[in-house]
């Protein structure tokens, strides 16, 4: 196992680190010096990847055993117990606007089709479809997936097609469709959920769609948290890094 690396280190192992980062889409010169550029690339990689246990890497800029493992292995598919059928639309008793349920229906069809990355990290025809020409292949696609799902409605997308979770949250707020953490808001099928990444003040974020809220658990369908469109579950009262929810009303243009 390579040694732990941090800013200021030099040598061939740093060069190898830089080459691996570039191969995974986090381009950095192979200078052999762990400089500020390399630190930013490491932190960006850690914020978007998982360890061998399917857990998010700690974003500390230090390349230890877990980060080395993630750099040298394909992005792991997270295997979770499935307490609900993510491929089925929740019943009407769970609520949801028509626009939201239509977006969730599109997400479910993508999940059933096995949509996700093909041929490398953040790559393949599904990813290109979600990116919608707004960024090159290899870019993060979680919010593009949410935008694409909402764009499938016959009326078209009710907000600006975006790849930025923070930008989407900003528009939801401006239009009065956002609901902050800690409120009495109860998410319903097709609502949008947005988290922060790395740190609260960062511009980075992550987005997904609510499948249902049941028995204190929030179930979602998300892209780019693992290599494929997949369902996830959270204890609703303990959702870390939550920025808020969005509900698109049926009367939205």
Structure overview:
It is a single chain. By secondary structure, the protein is an alpha+beta fold. It has two domains: 12-71, no CATH class; 92-246, endopeptidase domain like (from Nostoc punctiforme) (endopeptidase fold (from Nostoc punctiforme)). The protein has seven helices and six strands. It has helices at 12-23, 36-48, 65-71, 98-112, 125-131, 142-151, 165-174; strands at 178-179, 192-196, 205-214, 217-222, 230-235, 242-246. Strands 1-6-2-3-4-5 form a six-stranded antiparallel sheet. Helix 4 crosses helix 6. The longest helix has 15 residues, at 98-112. The radius of gyration is 19 Å and the shape is elongated.
């Amino acid at each position: 196992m390579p040694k732990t690396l941090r800013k200021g280190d030099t040598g061939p192992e740093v060069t190898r680190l830089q080459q691996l980062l570039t191969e995974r889409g986090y381009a950095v010169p192979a200078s052999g010096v762990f400089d500020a550029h390399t630190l930013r690339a490491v932190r960006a990689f850690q914020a978007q990847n998982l360890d061998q246990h399917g857990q998010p890497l700690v974003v500390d800029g230090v390349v230890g055993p877990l980060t080395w493992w993630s750099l040298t292995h394909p992005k792991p598919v997270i295997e979770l117990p499935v307490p609900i059928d993510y491929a089925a639309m929740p019943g009407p008793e769970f609520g949801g606007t028509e626009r939201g349920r239509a977006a969730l229906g599109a997400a479910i069809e993508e999940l059933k089709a096995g949509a996700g990355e093909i041929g490398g990290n953040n790559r393949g025809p599904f990813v290109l479809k979600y990116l919608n020409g707004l960024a090159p292949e290899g870019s993060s696609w979680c919010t593009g997936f949410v935008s694409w799902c909402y764009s499938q409605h016959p009326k078209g997308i009710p907000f600006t097609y975006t790849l930025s979770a923070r930008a989407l949250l900003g528009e939801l707020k401006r239009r009065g469709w956002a609901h902050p953490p800690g409120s009495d808001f109860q998410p319903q099928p097709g609502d949008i959920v947005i988290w922060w990444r790395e740190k609260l003040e960062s511009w980075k974020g992550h987005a997904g769609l609510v499948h249902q809220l049941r028995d204190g658990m929030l179930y979602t369908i998300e892209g780019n948290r693992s290599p494929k469109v997949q369902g996830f579950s959270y204890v609703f009262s303990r959702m870390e890094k939550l920025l808020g929810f969005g509900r698109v009303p049926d009367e939205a243009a």
